[in-house]
Amino acid sequence: MIDQVSQRQQDILALARLHGRVSVEELAARFEVTPQTIRKDLNELCDSRLLSRIHGGAVVASGVENVSYEARRLVAHGEKRAIGEAAARLIPNSASLFINIGTTTEEVARALGDHEDLLVITNNLNVATLLYRHPKMSLIVAGGPVRRADGAVIGSAAVDFINQFKVDYAVIGASAIDEDGTLLDFDYREVRVARAIIDNARRVILVADKLKLERSAPIRVGHLRELDYFVTDALPSGALREMCAAHRVELVEAGAEAGAHETSDAAE
């Protein structure tokens, strides 16, 4: 399918794969063409299922394969940082918790720096690197094969290890969230670990930015109704908002919190 697109469209696709997303405004400036021309390019790439359209641009189409981990770190980075800080505030001192793989769950780990007496169990080597020097935190890393693409410890050994614990909180991510509330991911081995984490926690915190509502992935992790908290930057879906209320899932919109803080600071 790639041989049917123009050279500019191939370059756009390469940029999207590198950065995770592209914007109409930036592409128009880069290629010195009109925004209308870029929109036409993006629409054709989306029609070919190479990209998925989002407001103001596009992301790599995600039906069967995820965007690279480094690219995901760059996508919605500020939003993920705010989500991480908001989720960390839900976790008290002296708690036990799982943290699974994901760029947003990493931001939660980063925001736990001021906590004391935490027991953190993770299958995420990036989280372990962030936390292992913390003097007031105990860290346990699941054993098993390491996925080279992102440092995730996956497989049956990791599942068996996690099943030995019952913790206070689970911090999980998802690659996509369907409009019916289904949480989705790409790797069935990672999903098995995520399921074990959900099943062995008293409270489950999902951290995911709003772009996850615009993506798709093939493997079911679970459902919104299994959560206790959903921490996001914003939730534009009325259906998912109603679902959170119906299933008593506490919705935390970190973007709204950040806006409130900015308004308060400006008033002062």
Structure description:
The chain has 268 residues and is of the alpha/beta class. The protein is 41% helix and 23% strand. It is built from eleven helices and 15 strands. The chain has helices spanning 7-19, 24-31, 35-47, 69-74, 77-88, 103-111, 125-131, 156-162, 188-199, 238-246, 254-267, and strands at residues 21-23, 51-54, 57-60, 96-99, 118-122, 137-141, 146-147, 152-153, 167-172, 176-177, 182-185, 201-207, 219-223, 229-232, 250-253. The strands form four sheets. A seven-stranded parallel beta sheet has the order 6-5-4-9-12-14-15, with helices on both faces. Helix 5 (77-88) crosses helix 6 and helix 8 packs parallel to helix 9 (188-199). It is globular. Mean pLDDT is 87; it is low at 259-268.
Q: Brief overview, please?
A:
The chain has helices at residues 7-19, 24-31, 35-47, 69-74, 77-88, 103-111, 125-131, 156-162, 188-199, 238-246, 254-267; strands at residues 21-23, 51-54, 57-60, 96-99, 118-122, 137-141, 146-147, 152-153, 167-172, 176-177, 182-185, 201-207, 219-223, 229-232, 250-253. It is of the alpha/beta class. A 7-stranded parallel β-sheet has the order 6-5-4-9-12-14-15, sandwiched between helices. A 3-stranded antiparallel β-sheet has the order 1-3-2.
